[in-house]
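debug: dumping io for the single-chain case to check the tokenizer round-trip. Nothing else runs in this session.
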Amino acid sequence: MPKRYLVIDGGNFLSRIYFGHNKEDEEVLIGMIWHSTLATLKYYAHKLKPNKIVIAFDRTSWRKGYTRSEEARTKKIYKETRRQAMSSSEKEKYLLFL
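debug: decoded output
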């Protein structure tokens, strides 16, 4: 029987959870990230029954490198309008998340 792997994009996974709960205070936010992460992993492990689970994280953001490139400066920057309306407390939490 072939081995089954569950491969997860860790950065995307955590970002989706963070932005789904970023209105909470810092302690609740951290708890919700852990809870949602573990509950989702448990759900997919139970449903797909993989032999191994692999969570991959990028070392750096491809988007940051792209927006510094010459191509990005001559064209509209990818998703440049994100996070402009954040309050100061939301910005602080976001910086902690990074």
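debug: round-trip ok. The chain has one domain: 5-97.
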